[in-house]
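My current task is to audit a protein record that another person submitted. Please read both lines and tell me whether the tokens look consistent with the sequence. Do not assume that whoever made the record got everything right. I have pasted the whole thing underneath without changing anything:

===
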Amino acid sequence: MQSTFNKISAKRRSIYALGDQVTASPEEIFDLVKTTVRNSPSAFNSQTVRAVILFGEKSDRVWQIVEDTLKEIVKDPAAFEKTKAKIATFRAGYGTILYLTDTKIVHQLEEQFPSYADNFADWSEQAIGGAQQAVWTALAENNIGASLQHYNPLIDDAIHQAFNLPETWQLRAEMPFGSIESPASDKDYLDEQEVFKLIK
């Protein structure tokens, strides 16, 4: 079987060498992310995923928060310099997407459907994972590189304060994106016999 989707998905890699040489406007990228997230599935059509798309100084602010936070945690100067250099690669991009879960909806569903209450938090994680994968692939289709970072929950309070986000929006990941200044390295795969089973 032929799959254009799989060809595009193969382009979706973790790109760490990012630049700001993206021809698409912030509005075009915002529309791409918005449409992609809205078309991503969620259990009970709960639509718990929230996305904040930041550009310019606002995007830089995310990575300054990360740097400032880790400076207080990473006490070894040499180790912090490596951390700072890594953060600089994210700051060098064109923008940043914050992915969040609206916990208000999760708790409402837990109360509305008590038989499934233990599952809604997990299902919200599945929803945000699907949305991240879809956006990442849509960016790759447009030759925009990205990676997925997880500095939450260390930066949660500062991010909420910096961008005036609702308290019920729980930060789950940060996605820096931009022009691809250097391709991803080769990807290793587990032996397929360890991963897949065909049962007829």
Notes: Residues 120-141 form the longest helix (22 residues).
